[in-house]
Amino acid sequence: xxxxxINGKKYEVDVQPDVPLLWVIRERLxxxxxxxxxxxxxxxxxxxxxxxxxVRSCQTLAGSAQGKKxxxxxxxxxxxxxxxxxxxxxxxxxxxxxxxxxxxxAALLAEDxxxxxxxxxxxxxxxxxxxxxxxxxxxxxxxxxxxxxx
Length: 150
Prior knowledge:
By secondary structure, the chain is an alpha+beta fold. The protein has helices at residues 21-28, 81-88, 98-111, 117-124, 134-145; strands spanning 2-6, 9-13, 47-50, 53-56, 69-71. The protein has two domains: 2-73, Roll (Ubiquitin-like (UB roll)), CATH 3.10.20.30; 81-145, Orthogonal Bundle (DNA polymerase, domain 1).
């Protein structure tokens, strides 16, 4: 039995502690905004926040997340500046990677509200987008960091 707090709600899930957090979130709790991409923590599609820090849920064991606050894309408010900037900049094409991209960007802006372009590039480096919307992603992060004003 693993006890988790996800998006402000407490859950008791009957899984072994060594099950990846991604599978608990998606398969046991039905929060399907967090995506499975590569399964080895290299693409970023499964990014969630663990106590405010971006982590790859495919590589995070459910047992290690006990006692920590987990936030998925469903738990990030709709009025979050990153979500708003993503819409305004029309970032998604296929959309598959977007929840991971948004969670990674939100963690960056929580740590550094006005990151330089080099820091944005470094922080977002591990999140892959098959559609290649990197220019729009960077633009949306800049917009979110500027409070929605270009």
